[in-house]
Amino acid sequence: MASAADKSELIRLARKGKVDGDDGFRVKLLDLERGGIKGPGHDYGLDFSKKPFYRTALWEATWKNHEAIVKLLVEKGATIDFKDYQGRTPLHEAAFYGYRNLVEYFLDKGHPIDPLDNFGQSPLFRAAEAGRDEIVELLVSRNASTNLLDKDATTAQHISRRLFPRTAKHVRVAALQRRLEEPLRDKGRGNCRACRL
């Protein structure tokens, strides 16, 4: 049976991004597989994480945009939407950092498009918060909900408008919203905290 130290090493290697070689991720993954660690599951699978952040190897590889490692882990059965201590999934982070390749990959593999973190925010919020127009457009085109309110009663559109007032980024979100869903403006002005800012 693989030890917690072995599983922690897998997380470290996922973050580092070295796939091949005697000290690479692929070799460590095969060693753990021989030790009975495979598929989903926190204690006996590839979803091991530890305090304080509870981030798995898949989450760490996503954060650093190590696509080859992400694909290896998903092929081996790691839970694609495992949440960290803030309730954020790998899709939340890929959207925030603008990793289109990983956002598309996760969605193609069946990751839910609108998982909410502990703050009530979906990956669309994270992309809007970081000013990732391309990711916002991709998520909205894949039917991400644009009218969700987070715990501060704010929508992704309002976050974009508040953080990027001198750019057209918020306009893109609004235009896409009008095209794909009932417009927020029809629900009444001033319904969210951002409108009052």
Automatic annotation (TrEMBL):
Q: Which Pfam families match?
A: Ank, Ank_2
Entry annotated with the keyword Glycoprotein: no
Where are the bilayer-spanning segments? none
Q: Where are the ANK repeats?
A: 53-85, 86-118, 119-151
User: Keyword Ribosomal protein, does the record have it?
Assistant: no
Please provide the record's keywords in A-Z order: ANK repeat, Repeat
The family database entries (InterPro entries) matched by this protein are listed as:
Ankyrin_rpt (IPR002110), Ankyrin_rpt-contain_sf (IPR036770)
Full protein name:
Uncharacterized protein
Q: What is the lineage of its organism?
A: Eukaryota, Sar, Alveolata, Dinophyceae, Prorocentrales
